[in-house]
C-alpha cells in the first residue's frame, strides 16, 4: 500500500480525526454495533434537537457520523499505520454501501426524523452529508483499490444535480451564485460550514477522476464564497448562516477558521487566508468574545 499516495488524501481538516481518535471523550453519544459501525444514541439525539421521536430503538445509524468515521479512520491509519483503522473504515463504508436510497441514478441518504432547523419533514438530505459521504467512498477506494467504491462515489456525486425544492434537492443558484445547501429549508439558509464540506467532497472526486466538469463546478463554488464571505463577517465574529445566526464559540474556532485555512490551501485564493486571519483575531479577543455573547443573548430573548 502506497502511503505516500494515501497522504495526499488526508482530510482537509483534522476535526474528524481528533474527534474519533478518543470517541468516548469527544463524542460520548456514539458507540459501535456488533459490526463495528458507529451508532448514535436516540435518547441523546432527541435531547440535542428537542425531537418527539416515538421509537423503541436505542440507537440510530446517522449517515453523516458514519461517513465522518470513515474519513477519520483513513487519516488515523495514515498517521499510525495501525490496520485496526482499516477494519473500522471498511465496516462503516459497508454500511454506506448498503443503506442508500437510489433516486434518478443517484445515491442519497435521507434523514428519518424531521429537524426544524434542517428539514421540516422526515426524509430530508443534506449537501454537507452527501459531500462527506462522497469523500468516504473515495477513501475506501484508495485503501482497497476496489472500483465499486468509485461507482458509489459517482452515484453520490450525481445527487449534486437536484435543485432545492425538489425531492432530495440541495442545489441552489441565486443572486450569490452556486450553492449546495446543508439543510433543505426554503428559502435557502446558506449555512457556511455545510457548503464547504460539500465542496470538499467535490474536490476529492475531482482529484481522483480529473473530470473537468467537476472542476468547473468547484471553481463556481469558490466564486460564490468570494462574493459572500464578507457577509459572514460581523466585524467581531462570524455568522453561521446568512439568516443572522451567529456561530457558536466552538463553530467559530473549530469549524470556520480551519475550513477557511483548508480552502486557501486548495484554492490559493487570498480572500480565504484574509478572513481566516481576521477570524483568528476575533477568537483571541476578549472584547470580541463578549460582543458575541451579547449578540447571542439579544437574539435569544429579544427577537422581533
Structure in words:
With 304 residues, the protein is mainly α. It contains 13 helices and seven strands. A three-stranded antiparallel sheet has the order 1-2-3. Strands 4-5 form a two-stranded antiparallel sheet. A two-stranded antiparallel sheet has the order 6-7. A hairpin with a 5-residue loop joins β1 (30-32) and β2 (38-41). α2 crosses α5, α6 packs across α7 (127-144) and α7 (127-144) runs antiparallel to α8 (148-158). The longest helix has 19 residues, at 249-267. The radius of gyration is 19 Å and the shape is globular. The relative contact order is 0.09. The mean pLDDT is 93.
Q: Tell me how many strands there are.
A: 7
Largest sheet: 3 strands, antiparallel
Number of helices: 13
What structural category do the secondary elements indicate?
mainly alpha
The percentage of residues in β strands lies in: 5-15%
The spatial strand order of the largest sheet comes to 1-2-3
Outline: globular
Helix and strand succession? HHHEEHEHHEEHHEEHHHHH
Uncertain segments are none
The whole-angstrom Rg is: 19 Å
* Helix share bin: 55-70%
Q: Summary?
A:
With 304 residues, the chain is mostly helical.
